[in-house]
Automatic annotation (TrEMBL), chain A:
Entry-linked PANTHER family: TETRATRICOPEPTIDE REPEAT PROTEIN
Function of the protein: Part of the endoplasmic reticulum membrane protein complex (EMC) that enables the energy-independent insertion into endoplasmic reticulum membranes of newly synthesized membrane proteins.
SUPFAM superfamilies per the UniProt record, alphabetical: TPR-like (SSF48452)
Gene Ontology cellular-component terms listed: EMC complex
Gene, per the UniProt record: EMC2
Organism: Sparus aurata
Main localization (coarse): endoplasmic reticulum
Lineage, top ranks: Eukaryota, Metazoa, Chordata, Craniata, Vertebrata
Localisation per UniProt entry: Endoplasmic reticulum membrane
Top-level taxon of the source organism: Eukaryota
Protein name, entry field: ER membrane protein complex subunit 2
UniProtKB/TrEMBL annotation, chain B:
Oligomeric and partner information: Component of the ER membrane protein complex (EMC). EMC8 and EMC9 are mutually exclusive subunits of the EMC complex.
Stated family: Belongs to the EMC8/EMC9 family.
Coiled coil: none
UniProt gene name: EMC8
Limits of the MPN domain: 3-144
Recorded GO CC terms: EMC complex
InterPro entries per UniProt: EMC8/9, MPN
Protein name, as recorded: ER membrane protein complex subunit 8
Organism superkingdom: Eukaryota
Length: 304, 204
């Protein structure tokens, strides 16, 4: 039996990190609400909200309704609570009624971003991707700084295989978050998927950039290896470009092997890699590294 | 040549879908490599003994998929397996048709295994009790993917598969299922899922 304090801390951590571990939230939250409601003070309202949303995710309409009713009693005319009521209707697939709730909020407050985003989510749930994309674009014209929305739009575009537009969304995110290695790495993946030599070179650069921002980003490391290998293998590149990319690929391959060695996950320690990487590895001297693997970027070879 | 699923392959697919109910998930199906090519091998079903869960969320990006195919191919060679199929569970409950991603990956698999199949999970019928098989199997005929009726014949032992899958879903084993995405987040995560495999064996 874990303590009240511990449970509250867990719920807070999950709120702050925006985790979608709904089953765990329901487990912890339900117990907290039923056993310790009186000891929660004002925290109880935000916990009701968190648990309600998690309950919807787990088809626990009983629990969701309980939380919603407590919130409606306490905050009778709140837009925030009305949005939760709408979300419950969405979970029950009563989309027309949910839309009515959201339209009512927007009637009252046209700048309510939460209601607008819920309406777009309904379109997504109904499989109306083209409309969802259109509405989200309109939303972003007005709320240009909404990063969550830009990210959602990039995902919608990726699912429609419109990689050019997905890249544009990620460019917006990279501009406003230049130190975020995840956006860099995703952008590189989109460019790689778009294909063609120019996009491959861009993807390699952004994988490398993601790696500089976070030297533990395994996707960036693998991406660097793949993109450099493909460029080196292309018949359209000059001998110098070929040589440079073989060097990058070889460096990445070494790092990958090193990473697997350190983690000792699988029985085999060496990842089998393509032919030209192994050839290049023999040709170029290997940099010396610390136990914190991946200290240097592709161009630097200084020992720590 | 139709495919057949073992309990291990079937339950890991469903555990993957259950772990990420709000995302699309996908993975590869592997079969044991047989050396001899019998003349009437067209009537022998291909037994998919295991599956490797790949990704959750965005499935339509190429680089990590290529990495996964390479690493898993190597693993297959070491274990005398061959990649024989692809599974996918779409994001929305009511959507269980193979999309462009599924067809592309399956086409890639078909280059090395001519009878590659696509197995789609029917999300709308996913329950704890698993009374009936909830997959739809697609075979490639005349340039199109056509669905086939799924009966208990598509399983090595349906009642065993049903029992094991139901038990693992109830026990929330999916919390411990590792897919390739989890592996990329932390290399210590083992996508061969030895822990789950052992649970399956214990229940057999």
């Amino acid at each position: 039996m874990i303590e009240n304090r511990e449970m509250r801390d867990k719920l807070r951590k999950w709120r702050e990190e925006n985790c979608r571990n709904s089953e765990q939230i329901v487990d912890v939250g339900e117990e907290l609400i039923s056993e310790h409601a009186s000891k929660l003070g004002d925290d109880i309202w935000i916990i009701y909200e968190q648990v309600m949303i998690a309950a919807l995710d787990c088809s626990r309409d009983d629990l969701a309704l309980t939380c919603l009713q407590e919130l409606e009693k306490q905050f009778s005319d709140s837009h925030r609570v009305k949005r939760l009521s709408g979300m419950r209707l969405e979970a029950l697939e009563r989309y027309d009624e949910a839309n009515k709730d959201y339209d009512a909020i927007l009637q009252d407050d046209p700048t309510n971003t939460a209601a607008r985003k819920r309406k777009i989510s309904i379109l997504k749930a109904q499989g109306k991707s083209a409309e969802a994309i259109r509405e989200l674009n309109e939303y972003l014209e007005q709320f240009v700084g909404d990063q969550e929305a830009w990210h959602e739009l990039s995902e919608l575009y990726i699912n429609e295989h419109d990689y050019g537009k997905a890249a544009f969304c990620l460019e917006e995110l990279m501009m406003t978050n230049p130190h975020n290695h995840l956006y860099c790495e995703q952008y590189a993946e989109v460019k790689y998927t778009q294909g063609g030599l120019e996009n491959l070179e861009l993807s390699r650069k952004y994988f490398a950039q993601a790696l500089r921002l976070n030297n533990r980003n395994m996707r960036a490391l693998f991406g660097l290896y793949m993109s450099a290998s493909h460029i080196a293998a292309s018949p359209k590149v000059s001998a110098k470009v070929k040589k440079d990319n073989m060097k990058y690929a070889a460096w990445a391959a070494t790092q990958i092997n090193r990473a697997y060695k350190y983690t000792d996950t699988l029985k085999r320690h060496i990842v089998h890699l393509g032919g030209h990487a192994e050839a290049a590895m023999k040709q170029y001297p290997l940099p010396v590294f610390d136990s914190g693997w991946l200290v240097a970027g592709p161009r630097r070879t200084n020992a720590p | 040549m139709p495919i057949q699923l073992t309990s291990q392959a079937y339950c890991k697919m469903l555990l993957h879908a259950a772990k990420y109910p709000h995302c699309a998930v996908n993975g590869l199906l592997v079969a044991e490599k047989t050396k001899e090519k019998k003349k009437d091998s067209h009537s022998e079903p291909v037994l998919c003994v295991d599956c490797v869960p790949l990704f959750h969320g965005t499935l339509a990006l190429a680089p990590m998929l290529e990495v996964a195919l390479t690493l898993i191919d190597t693993w297959c060679k070491e274990n005398n397996y061959i990649i024989a199929g692809y599974y996918q569970a779409n994001e929305r409950t009511k959507d269980s048709r193979p999309n462009q991603v599924a067809e592309k990956v399956a086409a890639r698999i078909s280059e090395n295994f001519s009878d590659a199949a696509i197995v789609m999970v029917d999300n709308s019928r996913l329950t704890m009790s698993c009374f009936e098989p909830i997959v739809v199997i697609y075979d490639h005929h005349e340039n199109k993917w056509k669905s086939r009726d799924v009966t208990s014949d598509c399983f090595e032992d349906w009642s065993e598969a049903q029992k094991i899958t139901s038990a693992l879903l109830e026990g929330r084993s999916y919390e411990n299922l590792i897919d390739f995405d989890n592996h990329l987040d932390d290399l210590r995560n083992d996508w061969t899922n030895p822990v789950i495999n052992k649970s399956v064996l214990d229940l057999c």
